[in-house]
From TrEMBL:
Protein name as it appears in the record: Carbonic anhydrase
Highest classification ranks of the organism: Bacteria, Bacillati, Actinomycetota, Actinomycetes, Propionibacteriales
GO molecular function terms noted in the UniProt entry: carbonate dehydratase activity; zinc ion binding
SUPFAM superfamilies on file: beta-carbonic anhydrase, cab
Bound cofactor: record note: Binds 1 zinc ion per subunit.
Alphabetized UniProt keyword annotations: Metal-binding, Zinc
SMART domains cross-referenced by the UniProt entry: Pro_CA
Role, per record: Catalyzes the reversible hydration of carbon dioxide to form bicarbonate.
Positions annotated to bind Zn(2+): H38, C41
Organism listed in the record: Microlunatus elymi
Pfam family, any one: Pro_CA
Length: 143
């Protein structure tokens, strides 16, 4: 199920929450959730533009971009200015939002029945790099 997490200022999508509860909220549910970002993400590029020049797109695109803006700001505050860095930051922040808004996933991660990992897909190389992990039994070095 590939969907963007709704912006923090809007309620957690009932349809998305239902799917997560259905897949993760039962004993035989899935044990791994992957948040996958990718290089060349248009939403990240648009969010950078909004931060730089203030021109927010309208409609659904604007909603998605508003969700990415905190990742742009957070990365910049930490001195990470490249688009790659912002894409990684956004994957990490998306995991945090997911765990904050979905108690069924967060509970499973806390008690060791599930894990959430974040990856960034490099299109040109066809490689996905691990950038974050929550709930895995092994210590994993992340970007």
């Amino acid at each position: 199920m590939a969907r963007a997490i709704p912006p923090a200022h809007r309620p957690w999508s009932p349809a998305l929450q239902h799917q997560f509860h259905r897949l993760v909220g039962r004993d035989e549910g899935i044990g791994l959730v992957v948040v996958l970002g990718h290089e060349g993400c248009g939403a990240v590029g648009a969010a950078r533009s909004v931060v730089d020049d203030g021109n927010l797109p309208t409609g659904h695109v604007g909603d998605l971009v508003q969700h990415v803006i905190p990742s742009v700001l957070s990365a910049r505050e930490a001195g990470r200015l490249s688009t790659d860095d912002i894409e990684v930051e956004h994957v990490i922040r998306t995991i945090d939002v997911l765990l904050e808004h979905s108690t069924s996933i967060a509970d499973r991660v806390t008690d060791g029945r599930a894990a959430v990992v974040g990856m960034r897909y490099r299109l040109a190389e066809g490689v996905a790099d691990l950038v974050a992990a929550r709930g895995l039994p092994l210590e994993i070095r992340t970007a």
